[in-house]
Amino acid sequence: MRYTQVPVPWHDARDGRRYVLPPDRDEAIVLQDAAVLVWELVQTPRAAEQIVDEIGDVDGLDRAGLLTAVTAHLRSLREWGLIRDEPSA
Known about the structure:
This is PqqD family protein. By secondary structure, this protein is of the alpha+beta class.
């Protein structure tokens, strides 16, 4: 399964990273580091597991916890309409 990026609002965080904002929020919020990993997943053909392996620990989460967070954020981005599924070629 590949994902297609759709136009999204951004929040530029103080640390210089860009975070996706859910469309139902008026104020800028900073999503967890897992959301950044999800965005990388959306933009590349790599699997979530590979990204998690490359990044390692994030905020004290072990691999299983990080993978769970990445999966949950990916599901949220899909529900918010920020990404959409595309069948694999």
